Amino acid sequence: MTANSNIRNPKSEIRNRTKSEIRNPKSEIEVAHKLGYASPADLILHLPLRYEDETRITPLRDARLGDTVQIEGVVEHSEIQNRPRRQLVVQVVDAASDNARLVFRLLHFYPSQVALLKPGTRVRLMGEVRPGFFGAEMVHPQFRVVRETTPLPDTLTPIYPAVAALSQYAIRRAVESALSEADLGDPLPIPAGFPSFAEALHSLHHPSPDARQEALESHDTPAWRRLKFDELLAQQLSLRLAARQRLALRALPLPDDGGLQERLLAALPFAMTAAQQRALREIRDDLARPHPMNRLLQGDVGSGKTLVAALAILPALAAGTQAAVMAPTEILAEQLFLKFQEWLQPLGIEVAWLAAALKGKAKKAAIAGIADGSVRVAVGTHALFQNDVSFHNLALVVVDEQHRFGVAQRLALRAKGAQVASGESRVASTPIDSPLATRDLQPHLLMMSATPIPRSLAMSYYADLDVSVIDELPPGRTPIATRTINANRRDEVIARLREYCLSGAQAYWVCPLVEESDKLQLRAAEESHAELVALLPELNIGLVHGRMKSEAKAAVMSAFKAGELHLLVATTVIEVGVDVANAALMVIEHAERYGLAQLHQLRGRVGRGARESSCVLLYETPLSDTARQRLKIIHDHNDGFAIARADLQLRGPGEFLGARQSGQQLLRFADPLADNDLLEQARDAAADLLEQHPQGVQRHLVRWLPRGLDLFRV
Fold it and tell me: Helices in 652-709 by DSSP H: which ranges?
């Protein structure tokens, strides 16, 4: 028996369809595009969510209330009723059950269905049996017109993921067409213990009636394991190919900093930690090579990633080239700019800040300086990769909080270096025998994240990315005590806040919104600021949020850092980059609304000085189970790696990496945590398959990654 035998014939199915749907079924191309696929061939991997058992008929006399069953009978009576609402009411009699009767109602129906359901018509109904005024009834069951000789299906009926305006009939028809036309052979050797690809697909699209639906729907069958392995293998193969291609690219080797590092470190009032030194050595080793660095620097909040990044760009500056540092928010970009300026300006290095808020002459001057090379380090937001920004000789790109940028944004900034490498600006000012005159150079890339990536994710999604970890905090960082308090005790928290600030310490008060929202009953920053100013007249209280002009935000932050403000009311714009040693208390309102990574980032704004530090999480009830788990995790852990592991388990890899928000489709079927054994097997197999079966690898990748490999390379 072939893998495609016993396939259902969707043309024989007559569901609750309009006349136009029967006459003009949607084309396979239209169905594929509506479901988000590049072509109809991709529909072979559009797998069912669940299944219905239409392989057996339940006699009406045996149908129990509340059960979803399939019955067969003959229409005895059919009429349109207008009360209490317009509906088509059909009575069906089951002669095999002593003429037991059932009523089914269609609240939405078409003239074609009225004509179809005339007395004497034999129908099969699939739906939930409910108690009705005249006995058992079904509301909007699935139905089809049949003959006494119409055979029952011999496989379970798949229910596919759908979108608006696409019926199950149209999807089934398109999937069946794709399966009948596709080459379902195995382009690579079948791993031991797995079914063939064709067998796996057949058992998922057309499972036998005795298949365990629970196992099918929980993706716990040999067929599901085969497809999850294939998906993970495609990912590992694509990342290895991307790594090979990167090694084939050329970058300017940056082996020496010309003594700049020694001068910068000599001016610092503290020493680097051993973890910082180790991470910097790994980065410097990469920079010295003639192909582009692609490295992720990860470390907990306050571990000193910014200093490592500043030291990492020194070889590029010593070589006479430029570096760009991109951050996701203006406040973080501004904080980075101030730090880089503080450290690099004494070395004679000009640093410029570029963001959307920068206007007029200041913006023109920054863009001009970046273009002519007088600005050696450009720090900014996504404004750095806009069309009107061109670099003179960009050799190194640093992306902070990289997971908060979309794939296209990260590609765009890196492309600025490639544009420069092939343009005239670099060549015109460089001797012809200089390495800078080469037209195919790519910039080095350093990405940073304070959200540690667990090993299973790093192995899965960052196979083309070398990872450096700063796994210790600088000496002097005080542990932060975290408390979760019900918002009905808000007055007590405010009273404690007054005492705390009057003792000479400073505090943050964080709110999730700028202005009051009718849709979300959250306390707004402006409302909280006004209330706290009224309740605490003896304190100087500032307000900062993302809608303020850049100059106003800078003024408030400067006043807070100088100790002129006791309390800073803020939105999450202070999540990263803000460093005030005297601030040792943070209150976060509506803490149940934040993600774990964000709560940990916010909490990291305190505990940076000698004072004992606290973070108060005010929450509103009732709490969802997920919110309760998040608050417990953040209460019990200060270690960012432990929090990241727990966050991954709660949210899954797509949300954790920020990839779904940025439009990148990650693994559809496999889970790097739950399927870690398959991930290890796929990773181990990838290298040998690339060497021994290069053509099979290409066919495998076309099947699983029809849109190409670009998204896996960033």
Answer: 653-656, 676-692, 694-704
